[in-house]
Amino acid sequence: MQSQSSSPNVPDALKRYFEQAHIALALAGVGADNPLLLVNEPFHKLTGYTAPEVVGRNCRLLQGDAENPEAREKIHTFLEGDGVNAVRTTILNVRKDGRPFVNLLYMSKLRALSGEVRFLFASQFDVSRSQPELLAAYDAELSRTLSRLRPSLAESGIVLEGSLKAIANTVATVAQAKLTLADLDGTGFP
After folding, report:
1. Beta partners for residue 190, in sequence order
2. Cα–Cα distance for residue pair 64/97, rounded to 1 Å
3. 114-142 per-position pLDDT tens digit
């Protein structure tokens, strides 16, 4: 089991959900650099990082030396904007072994019934070398994940904000990821 929590405030139902999920998931705290609280086995398989290596750290460690200006701007807008409930963007990440991959990152805010943001929920998917049908399957699984997660969170008094926005053209997303990797090959990036 890869999931590990550094906070007793993470509801047990959410911990169990992470353990059973088939897609890479991460949960971060709010404030003070948004430390990771929980990751699952698919996260480990995707990134190479185990829960003890990342819990307590900010997920930006996956960016390595990559600049990611557009993705960072979208993420900052999401984190700072109370009206922005979810974000979906591609971002260049680096596995523990140094191999780069283009991550299709989805993030959503988890709020208490009072409206206070309690956690940041994230899912990751490698679009670097995937086929369009794999991306469509991931989208379907993420949609199912969000649908199944909502009742578990509701039992704990937490609301999942935002919804999965369908990718208008998955082929274009994969093509952009391949261009990013091709650019990396020309720069000597590990």
Report:
1. none
2. 11
3. 888 899 999 999 987 666 667 777 877 88
- Domain assignment present for residue 87? The answer is yes
Terminal CA-to-CA distance of the chain, rounded, Å? 30
- Residue 6 belongs to some domain of the structure: no
The domain of 53 spans 12-187
Residue 164 lies in a domain: yes
Asked if 161 and 111 count as a contact pair (C-beta separation under 8 A), the reply is: yes
Task: Return the pLDDT at 43.
Answer: 97
Closest CA to 183 of 95, 98, 92, 94: 92
Report how many domains make up the chain: 1
Dihedral sign from CA coordinates of 102, 33, 151, 88: negative
Q: CATH number for the domain including 180?
A: 3.30.450.20
CB 26 within 8 A of CB 122: yes
Residue 181 has pLDDT above 80, yes or no: no
Taking the model in full, what pTM does it have?
0.80
Does residue 5 lie in a domain region? Answer: no
In 10 A of CB 121, how many CB atoms? 25
Backbone CA torsion sign across 172, 178, 182, 187: positive
pLDDT category at 185 given cuts 50, 70, 90 is low
